[in-house]
Design goal:
149 residues; mainly alpha; 71% helix; rod-shaped
Length: 149
Protein backbone atom coordinates (compact mmCIF):
# COMPACT_ATOMS: atom_id res chain seq x y z
CA UNK A 1 0.00 0.00 0.00
CA UNK A 2 1.13 3.49 -0.71
CA UNK A 3 1.42 5.90 2.11
CA UNK A 4 1.15 9.58 1.79
CA UNK A 5 4.57 10.76 2.93
CA UNK A 6 6.61 13.75 2.09
CA UNK A 7 10.12 13.54 0.74
CA UNK A 8 12.67 15.33 2.80
CA UNK A 9 14.05 18.40 1.06
CA UNK A 10 17.07 18.72 3.31
CA UNK A 11 20.40 17.70 1.85
CA UNK A 12 23.16 16.38 4.03
CA UNK A 13 26.20 18.53 4.55
CA UNK A 14 28.53 15.83 3.18
CA UNK A 15 26.68 15.79 -0.12
CA UNK A 16 26.69 19.55 -0.30
CA UNK A 17 30.44 19.82 0.29
CA UNK A 18 31.10 17.04 -2.22
CA UNK A 19 29.13 18.85 -4.93
CA UNK A 20 30.84 22.12 -4.14
CA UNK A 21 34.26 20.52 -4.48
CA UNK A 22 33.29 18.90 -7.75
CA UNK A 23 32.15 22.13 -9.30
CA UNK A 24 34.91 24.21 -7.78
CA UNK A 25 37.89 25.42 -9.74
CA UNK A 26 40.26 23.07 -7.95
CA UNK A 27 39.36 20.13 -10.18
CA UNK A 28 39.59 22.21 -13.31
CA UNK A 29 42.97 23.59 -12.25
CA UNK A 30 44.26 20.08 -11.57
CA UNK A 31 43.07 18.99 -15.03
CA UNK A 32 44.76 21.99 -16.64
CA UNK A 33 48.02 21.08 -14.92
CA UNK A 34 47.83 17.52 -16.29
CA UNK A 35 46.70 18.50 -19.79
CA UNK A 36 47.74 21.89 -20.98
CA UNK A 37 44.77 23.42 -22.72
CA UNK A 38 45.41 26.06 -25.39
CA UNK A 39 45.48 29.65 -24.23
CA UNK A 40 46.28 31.47 -27.46
CA UNK A 41 44.73 31.41 -30.91
CA UNK A 42 47.75 29.66 -32.47
CA UNK A 43 47.84 27.03 -29.72
CA UNK A 44 44.10 26.51 -30.13
CA UNK A 45 44.50 25.96 -33.88
CA UNK A 46 47.27 23.42 -33.30
CA UNK A 47 45.16 21.69 -30.68
CA UNK A 48 42.17 21.61 -33.05
CA UNK A 49 44.31 20.34 -35.92
CA UNK A 50 45.80 17.55 -33.84
CA UNK A 51 42.37 16.58 -32.49
CA UNK A 52 40.95 16.46 -36.02
CA UNK A 53 43.90 14.39 -37.18
CA UNK A 54 43.43 11.89 -34.36
CA UNK A 55 39.66 11.70 -34.97
CA UNK A 56 40.13 11.21 -38.71
CA UNK A 57 42.65 8.43 -38.02
CA UNK A 58 40.16 6.73 -35.72
CA UNK A 59 37.40 7.11 -38.32
CA UNK A 60 39.64 5.62 -41.00
CA UNK A 61 40.49 2.72 -38.69
CA UNK A 62 36.80 2.00 -38.06
CA UNK A 63 35.92 2.23 -41.77
CA UNK A 64 38.75 -0.12 -42.72
CA UNK A 65 37.72 -2.56 -40.00
CA UNK A 66 34.16 -2.60 -41.33
CA UNK A 67 35.41 -3.11 -44.88
CA UNK A 68 37.67 -5.97 -43.79
CA UNK A 69 34.75 -7.61 -41.97
CA UNK A 70 32.56 -7.34 -45.09
CA UNK A 71 35.25 -8.83 -47.30
CA UNK A 72 35.88 -11.68 -44.86
CA UNK A 73 32.16 -12.44 -44.81
CA UNK A 74 32.02 -12.38 -48.60
CA UNK A 75 35.10 -14.59 -48.78
CA UNK A 76 33.60 -17.19 -46.46
CA UNK A 77 30.41 -17.18 -48.56
CA UNK A 78 32.43 -17.69 -51.73
CA UNK A 79 34.45 -20.50 -50.11
CA UNK A 80 31.24 -22.26 -49.12
CA UNK A 81 29.90 -21.85 -52.65
CA UNK A 82 33.19 -23.16 -54.07
CA UNK A 83 33.04 -26.25 -51.88
CA UNK A 84 29.44 -26.90 -52.97
CA UNK A 85 30.41 -26.60 -56.64
CA UNK A 86 33.39 -28.90 -56.10
CA UNK A 87 31.11 -31.49 -54.50
CA UNK A 88 28.65 -31.24 -57.39
CA UNK A 89 31.50 -31.51 -59.90
CA UNK A 90 32.79 -34.65 -58.21
CA UNK A 91 29.33 -36.18 -58.29
CA UNK A 92 28.96 -35.33 -62.00
CA UNK A 93 32.34 -36.85 -62.85
CA UNK A 94 31.37 -40.00 -60.96
CA UNK A 95 28.01 -40.21 -62.77
CA UNK A 96 29.68 -39.69 -66.16
CA UNK A 97 32.22 -42.40 -65.39
CA UNK A 98 29.46 -44.84 -64.45
CA UNK A 99 27.36 -44.01 -67.52
CA UNK A 100 30.35 -44.18 -69.87
CA UNK A 101 31.62 -47.57 -68.73
CA UNK A 102 31.63 -50.22 -71.45
CA UNK A 103 29.35 -52.60 -69.56
CA UNK A 104 26.74 -49.86 -69.02
CA UNK A 105 26.99 -48.85 -72.68
CA UNK A 106 26.57 -52.46 -73.82
CA UNK A 107 23.52 -52.92 -71.58
CA UNK A 108 21.90 -49.75 -72.94
CA UNK A 109 22.64 -50.75 -76.55
CA UNK A 110 21.15 -54.21 -75.96
CA UNK A 111 18.08 -52.64 -74.34
CA UNK A 112 17.64 -50.43 -77.44
CA UNK A 113 17.80 -53.47 -79.73
CA UNK A 114 21.34 -53.24 -81.06
CA UNK A 115 23.22 -56.54 -81.53
CA UNK A 116 26.73 -57.57 -82.45
CA UNK A 117 26.92 -58.07 -86.26
CA UNK A 118 27.59 -61.65 -87.40
CA UNK A 119 29.00 -60.75 -90.84
CA UNK A 120 30.87 -57.76 -92.13
CA UNK A 121 29.84 -55.91 -95.22
CA UNK A 122 32.16 -53.54 -97.06
CA UNK A 123 30.92 -50.81 -99.34
CA UNK A 124 33.21 -49.55 -102.05
CA UNK A 125 32.59 -46.66 -104.36
CA UNK A 126 34.56 -47.92 -107.41
CA UNK A 127 35.67 -51.37 -108.47
CA UNK A 128 39.36 -52.01 -108.05
CA UNK A 129 41.47 -51.62 -111.16
CA UNK A 130 44.84 -53.16 -111.86
CA UNK A 131 46.99 -50.35 -110.47
CA UNK A 132 44.79 -49.66 -107.44
CA UNK A 133 44.17 -53.30 -106.51
CA UNK A 134 47.19 -53.84 -104.23
CA UNK A 135 46.58 -50.56 -102.40
CA UNK A 136 42.90 -51.42 -101.84
CA UNK A 137 43.71 -54.92 -100.68
CA UNK A 138 46.08 -53.61 -98.05
CA UNK A 139 43.47 -51.11 -96.87
CA UNK A 140 40.88 -53.91 -96.59
CA UNK A 141 43.31 -56.02 -94.60
CA UNK A 142 44.06 -53.10 -92.32
CA UNK A 143 40.36 -52.37 -91.76
CA UNK A 144 39.55 -56.05 -91.04
CA UNK A 145 42.47 -56.30 -88.65
CA UNK A 146 41.21 -53.20 -86.82
CA UNK A 147 37.65 -54.49 -86.65
CA UNK A 148 38.72 -57.93 -85.35
CA UNK A 149 40.43 -56.41 -82.37
Amino acid sequence: MLQDTTISTTVSTELTTSLQQTFSGETLRAFEQQVSLPTSRKAFLWFLLSTLLICSGLLLYVLLSVQIFRIETQLSTLETEYQTIERQNTNLVSDIAQQASLSQLQQRATALGYTVPQTRLYVTSQPATGADAPAQATSEQASTSLIDR
